[in-house]
């Protein structure tokens, strides 16, 4: 147990770092020296302002250096940036939208999850534990038109708060899938309710959280990418009412519009929820 826990931050961090490298997300932007100068100068100025305002000591400066080195060693740059910065990038990228509010992607998306036509059951272990969750809804355009064959990608943690491909011992596509909605944009997916997620406590990010007296929790959430031809891709997360971390998500990624309405399942055990998505047409 100790060894497993000790290995987990670096293992999931490095998996997230590898995933980023393979994702095709580029490490360069179109070279525009003016823009780079502006952004880098602002970042450097912000750091210097903190040093001067807070009279940062050599001891603190060296602790920062050591910590930044460890963030890289633990592979936790994707985790650090997605937890503490991505929410602002997401706000900027989507504030023109009239359709659904989205939320951050986070570090644990993997593309090309096996495709199934709706209705479907997400890939899970035979003895997957948790509360069965029926997740259904309709994908429409902002003008109200149903989007036939919309695509709903869903990924989330298991009942212990772990993601497949980023924690050991979980089948590759567990609780991950791509679902094709019907002609009316309707989807119906049987899955298992995820648990709240704790940022790994034994890596650099966890060290910062403990040293600062913060908590390491994200509320339980479903991750989604919803798409249809001619429409902007929606990356979102959905949350469960009553979760104690909906109001103090470490990743600042909860929005009121993203709270689900959870009802007892109409058939069988567990719960069900209906959530409709509205996608913005791509601007012409
Ligand atoms: C997660 O599961 C997550 O969604 C984010 C944003 C950051 C860390 C872990
Ligand atoms: Fe997540």
TrEMBL record:
Residues 1-17 have a biased composition (Low complexity). The keyword Metal-binding applies. Coiled coil: none annotated. Residues 135-163 form the Intradiol ring-cleavage dioxygenases domain. Keywords: Dioxygenase, Iron, Metal-binding, Oxidoreductase. Residues 1-27, 96-116 are annotated as: Disordered. InterPro entries: 1_2-CTD_multi_dom (IPR043029), Catechol_dOase_N (IPR007535), Cchol_dOase_actb (IPR012800), Intradiol_dOase_C (IPR000627), Intradiol_dOase_core (IPR015889), Intradiol_RC_Dioxygenase (IPR050770). Transmembrane segments: none annotated. Its cofactor is Fe(3+). SUPFAM superfamilies: Aromatic compound dioxygenase. Belongs to the intradiol ring-cleavage dioxygenase family. PANTHER family: DIOXYGENASE, PUTATIVE (AFU_ORTHOLOGUE AFUA_2G02910)-RELATED, INTRADIOL RING-CLEAVAGE DIOXYGENASES DOMAIN-CONTAINING PROTEIN-RELATED. NCBIfam families: catachol_actin (TIGR02438). This is Catechol 1,2-dioxygenase.
């Amino acid at each position: 147990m100790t060894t497993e826990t000790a290995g987990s931050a670096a293992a999931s961090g490095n998996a997230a770092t590898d995933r980023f490298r393979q994702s095709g997300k580029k490490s360069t932007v179109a070279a525009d020296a003016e823009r780079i100068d502006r952004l880098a100068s602002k970042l450097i100025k912000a750091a210097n302002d903190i040093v001067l305002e807070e009279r940062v000591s050599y001891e603190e400066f060296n602790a920062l250096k050591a910590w930044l080195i460890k963030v890289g060693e633990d592979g936790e740059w994707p985790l650090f940036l997605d937890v503490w910065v991505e929410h602002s990038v997401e706000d900027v990228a989507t504030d023109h939208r009239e359709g659904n509010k989205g939320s951050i992607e986070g570090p644990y998306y993997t593309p090309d999850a096996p495709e199934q036509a709706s209705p479907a059951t997400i890939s899970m272990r035979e003895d997957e534990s948790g509360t069965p969750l029926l997740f259904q809804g309709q994908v429409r355009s902002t003008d109200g038109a149903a989007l036939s064959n919309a695509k709903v990608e869903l990924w989330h943690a298991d009942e212990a708060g772990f993601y497949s491909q980023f924690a050991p011992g979980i089948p590759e596509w567990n609780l991950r899938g791509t679902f094709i909605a019907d002609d009316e944009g309707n989807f119906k997916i049987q899955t298992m309710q995820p648990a709240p997620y704790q940022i790994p406590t034994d890596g650099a990010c966890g060290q910062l959280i403990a040293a600062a007296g913060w908590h390491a929790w994200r509320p339980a959430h479903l991750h989604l990418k919803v798409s249809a031809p001619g429409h902007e891709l929606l990356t979102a997360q959905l949350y469960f009412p009553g979760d104690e971390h909906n109001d103090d998500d470490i990743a600042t990624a909860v929005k009121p519009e993203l709270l689900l309405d959870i009802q007892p399942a109409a058939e069988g055990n567990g719960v069900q929820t209906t959530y409709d998505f509205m996608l913005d047409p791509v601007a012409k």
